[in-house]
Write a structure and sequence with these properties.
With about 500 residues, this protein is an alpha+beta fold. The chain has a single domain, classed as Alpha-Beta Complex (Amidase signature (AS) enzymes). About 35% of the residues lie in helices and about 15% in strands. The chain has an eleven-stranded mixed beta sheet with strand order 1-3-2-8-10-9-16-17-13-11-12, with helices on both faces. A two-stranded antiparallel sheet has the order 4-5. A two-stranded antiparallel ribbon has the order 6-7. The protein is globular.
């Protein structure tokens, strides 16, 4: 048995088993997580608002339930970090935005409520970019989140706080969301697992455009098992989300591993259109070669995806104008430059552009569907560059080519968003810069369970090799606080205020 102070380093799945067999107490686990947050969070600034007092009350109640022999939920007693775009009852939810600096929701969003019912203990919020816009987690309310492997570098986004908190073992599970890569990119840069599920698998009652498939909520953890466990507790219909549908938790947990020897894998470095750093290409090729002897087939694929970049521009702008047009009109000073840029882009988009973008998305989805007639998995890099300094708002140039806008560098993930297939970022060693490398593993639409089983098999195959196993930060180096992470101001000084009524749109 681990000492109390080591408990947060155990997997969520193992911690849940230990709680269920009365070998550890939810109170002991929570206290160990709080101590770890207090010790390491000053170095990365991943955790923002905390709810330690209420969390301790809930941990004591969880302990009492165990001792009474009550039926326990799948996440019973596990401390949870909630992304600061997602409403938490009675706990500050700022979206990293000055206009929401004083926003304390009266109710949880669908996902948080469901995780609480499964026994999770909401402990803290995790940092995000302003309104979730961008893949570098920094905002004028809480500051920036540093990468656990080098706090001077960025943690990705928009679920960067969740990814960094997991990498530092501050919390066993964290929530995320993903429009253009917000789960997958920070998971890759911080060396953890993030799953973008098929649309509708995890209900989202906060999505402004109820029928839009590009924005989803999903689980983040340190292993495929942990993500599978959390996903099993996240399922269910919500009548406020017209895309949500029923799914069986037992399809996801307990989790099994696929037989790799029977799998057919297609791979691509760039989907035929994304700009990717040569070093990332070399690291990806080495991972392809490590997979090749394990599977039935591992072959390059070609996808004719047309102008996917422009299609994402239009669909993203549509989502942002739906969520933020009123705020842009009435209080534009409260919106950061990334959000404003997306709303302004919508002003030049015509109905014809929208029709074209939806047709293009349909074409992309059918291209992926056709590829999955031959392959069980498609793999690609998750990010086109290694982590860069958090002081740089985004990657302005890759391989000598200038980016069109602040999210163009996310093409490897938003191409898959357009296809709507489930996709998981799987940590597998380090890149040439010594930073975590994430493999993007893509499955058939609505076959999320099969994707998770395949990802678990890859994870197990790589676990014994330091070159491919999940990397772990140097915690000795994280003993030193980094106050500069909290000092950034990107637009006018903070003001008091309640909710501005806007709905979050993750990157």
């Amino acid at each position: 048995m681990a000492h109390d102070h080591d408990l947060p380093q155990l997997s969520a799945a193992r911690l849940r088993r230990l709680i269920g067999t009365r070998q550890i107490s939810p109170v002991e686990l929570l206290d160990a997580c709080i101590a770890r947050i207090e010790r390491y969070n000053p170095a990365v600034n991943a955790v923002t608002a905390t709810d330690f007092e209420r969390a301790r009350e809930h941990a004591r109640a969880a302990e009492a339930a165990v001792m009474r022999g009550d039926a326990l939920g799948p996440l019973h007693g596990l401390p949870l970090g909630v992304k600061d775009l997602q409403d938490t009852a009675g706990l500050l939810t700022t979206h990293g935005n000055v206009g929401l600096r004083g926003n304390v929701p009266a109710a949880d969003n669908t996902l948080v409520a469901r995780l609480r019912r499964a026994g999770a203990i909401v402990t803290a919020k995790t940092n995000v970019p302003d309104m979730g816009a961008g893949a570098n987690t920094r905002n004028p309310v809480w500051g920036a989140t540093g990468n656990p492997f080098d706090p001077s570098l960025n943690a990705g986004g928009s679920s960067g706080g969740s990814a960094a908190a997991l990498a530092c073992d501050l919390l066993p599970l964290c929530t995320g969301s993903d429009t253009g890569g917000s789960l997958r990119i920070p998971a890759a840069l911080c060396g953890v697992v993030g799953l973008r599920p098929s649309p509708g698998l995890v209900a989202n009652n906060a999505r402004a455009l109820g029928w839009s498939v590009i924005s989803v909520l999903g689980p983040m953890g340190r292993s495929v098992d942990d993500v599978s466990l959390m996903l099993s507790a996240s399922l269910g219909v919500d009548t406020r989300d017209p895309l949500s549908h029923a799914a069986a938790p037992e399809a996801f947990w307990p989790a099994g591993a696929a037989d790799l020897s029977g799998l057919r894998v297609g791979y691509t470095e760039d989907f035929g259109l994304c700009i990717v750093d040569p070093g990332v290409r070399r690291t990806f090729r080495s991972r392809v070669e490590s997979i090749r002897p394990l599977v039935a087939a591992c072959e390059p694929i070609e996808l004719e995806l047309g102008d996917a970049d422009r299609a994402f521009d239009v669909l993203r702008a549509e989502a942002f104008v739906a969520a933020y047009a009123d705020v842009y009109k009435n209080a534009p000073e409260t919106l950061g430059p990334n959000v404003r840029a997306n709303v302004e882009m919508a002003g030049s988009i015509t109905l014809g552009d929208r029709a074209w973008a939806h047709l293009q998305q349909t074409h992309i989805a059918r291209q992926f569907a056709r590829a999955f007639e031959r392959y069980d998995l498609i793999i690609a890099p998750t990010t086109p560059v290694s982590a860069f300094p958090w002081t740089e708002l985004y990657a302005k140039e890759i391989d000598g080519q200038a980016m069109r806008n602040y999210y163009h560098w996310l093409g490897l993930t938003y191409v898959v968003t357009l296809a709507t297939n489930p996709a998981l970022s799987l940590p597998c060693g380090r890149d040439e810069q010594g930073m975590p490398f994430g493999l993007q593993v893509i499955g058939r639409l609505r076959e999320d369970a099969a994707l998770l089983r395949a990802a678990k098999a890859l994870e197990e195959a790589w676990a014994g090799d330091a070159d491919t196993a999940r990397p772990v930060p140097d915690f000795t180096a994280l003993e030193q606080p980094r106050p500069e992470l909290k000092s950034i101001v990107t637009h006018p000084p903070l003001v008091d205020g309640g909710s501005n009524g806007a709905a979050p749109v993750a990157v």
